[in-house]
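Folds abound. A case:
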Amino acid sequence: MEIGPLLIMILALAGVVGLALGMFGGGGSILMVPLLSYVAAMPTKEAIATSLLVVGATSAVSLLPHALKGHVRWVQGLIFAATSMVGAYGAGLLAQGIPAQLLMIGFAVIMVGSARGMIRGR
């Protein structure tokens, strides 16, 4: 099997996403959805769903060093995770009836809002 330049670029960018997620604890979806959509040419709905898998797996791996240092609030984290999973499941059901372009616009609005909030701080 020959590894083409596009695959090498996708893997390199995915590594950058993993580094950002591991270092900053977030940003995986904001980086992964455009990577999958525009670089890997994946359909929008598949890119969003795939990014959830990638971010979940990367987060689980990134959790280990923080947990070993005692930097994890397990009770709050598990409550937040369970609640988020219920919301994500419901949103996944709703997203089936929403056009892909509208989902990408909504995603972009959330990205801009998140960036604005991070720049402004608390």
